[in-house]
Amino acid sequence: MSIYPFLCEKILMPAADIATRNKTMKCYDFYKQSQWWGRQDLKKYQDQRLLETIQIAYNEVPFYKELYDESGVDIRNITRTEDLTLLPIVSKDQLRNNYPDKCVRDSGHSWSEFCTSGSSGSPFAVRVDSNTMSQARALMLLRANYSGWEIGNPFLQTGMTLHRGIVKKVKDLLMRVEYVSAFNLSDRILDNYLQLIEDKRINYVMGYAGSLFCLAERAEQKGFNREMKGLVSWGDNLYKHYRTKIEKVFHCGVTDTYGCGEGIQIAAQCGMNDNAYHIFMPHVALEIVDDDGFPVKSGELGNVLLTRLDAGAMPLIRYKVGDIGRKSSAETCCCGRGLEMLTKIEGRDTDVVLTPNGNRLIVHFFTGIFEYYQSIDTFRIIQDKLGEITVQIVPRSNFNSEISERLIKEIKNKGDSDLQINLEFVEEIPLEKSNKRRFVVSKLAKGIETTL
């Protein structure tokens, strides 16, 4: 470890935690060590945290007490993660209908409200306290470590807003982050990002998979030949052709990660095996179940259920996130980590919308807008003509023409003023045959392989 990364990890970041009353680096040190524990020790820790979380949820959160009482659940029977099957599954609709009165608690920590669409395209709000956020941020650092990056190494990150706020700006400064927008991915903007990488000798890039793919495509067109050390992707599917292109252009591997906007960091690839996503067991218990809620065998496809092992301000227990995945049948990975593994995540879909003026709108461009429209139940974007999109909307009762105008204006202002937008109101948006919901569908690029 060179001098600045050492100072950043051991002195500057811990000092920043003290100043902001967070515990990110304390959590980071714990997760960094515990990933190497044996499976038995990890399970024991999980069981202990689960017991605490269930008891807090039942005693302090009316939603869970009512749900468990109505289901005839005796929480004294829940002593280990295998007992989670005794509990009912919790859906987004249930949480939305009970938020905030019945599904939040006073955890004693400051909290923030986040709106999220997730892979279902259906927005709702979650409350995340500072302690839970410290855990999530610590795992964001750990997942980046899997690419070879160390705290303090400069990196470029694509994100959804440049309005960072004073705390995030200080963090960016300490960690030497070049934070850039994933909203605008036109050739001119991508050229600026490539020049920034060149000028500042940046070796690592992190961000949405769709934005990394667009950057790689532009780099190839421009003849960019700087060899990178690692890239970290999140947010949407890292398709096979995405990975192939990115790794070919930047001459390094891509570390794909899996998390959700509800304050849960779920898993990340270790770099030793493209099919191994290590589940962050001290933070989350992950189940794969069939449509009836029963566990499937390892290696079989099923619905992802998440239990965050920290009650926080809003407990999430057997939460159906809307994703589809497979658990690995392998007990261990050659990297030596004791963490359980996923082999496939299929519930997040990405297509890139092309605009008349050359911008590329990735899936999170749209979720970053629609998640704040509580009057919209679900949505889907369809592009079958260049310069034009159809926005399918399942409206709620409070949706009106003023909201339609505001939505169109926001998409144009943030994406491309010349983009033609057609609104289509429907009663429902059916799932795909794979039981996934694709909420950005491009029909322009026929024949592209989109399997992981």
Describe this structure in words.
By secondary structure, the chain is α/β, with parallel strands linked by helices. The chain has a domain at 353-442: ANL, C-terminal domain (GMP Synthetase, Chain A, domain 3, 2-Layer Sandwich). The chain contains 12 helices and 19 strands. The strands form 4 sheets. Strands 4-3-5-6-7-8-9-13-12-11-10 form an 11-stranded mixed β-sheet, with helices on both faces. Strands 18-17-16-19 form a 4-stranded mixed β-sheet, covered by helices on one side. A two-stranded antiparallel ribbon has the order 1-2. A hairpin with a 5-residue loop joins strand 14 (353-354) and strand 15 (360-361). The chain is globular, with a radius of gyration of 22 Å. It starts with a helix and ends in a 10-residue tail after the last strand.
Helix/strand structural class: alpha/beta
* Estimated share of beta-strand residues: 15-25%
**Highest CATH level, the class of the domain at 353-442:** Alpha Beta
- Shape field: globular
Largest sheet: 11 strands, mixed
Task: Give the full name of the CATH homologous superfamily of the domain at 353-442.
Answer: ANL, C-terminal domain
Number of DSSP helices?
A: 12
Percent range of helical residues: 25-40%
Using the coordinates shown, work out and report the CATH topology of the domain at 353-442: GMP Synthetase, Chain A, domain 3
**Would you identify the regions where 5 or more consecutive residues have pLDDT less than 50?**
446-452
Q: Can you count the beta strands? A: 19
Averaged pLDDT: 90
Strand order of the largest sheet: 4-3-5-6-7-8-9-13-12-11-10
Q: What is the CATH architecture annotation of the domain at 353-442? A: 2-Layer Sandwich
Q: Gyration radius, to the nearest Å?
A: 22 Å
N-to-C span: 34 Å
InterPro entries: ANL_N_sf, CapK_Type1_Caps_Biosynth
GO molecular function, one term: ligase activity
Protein name: Phenylacetate--CoA ligase family protein
Keywords: Ligase
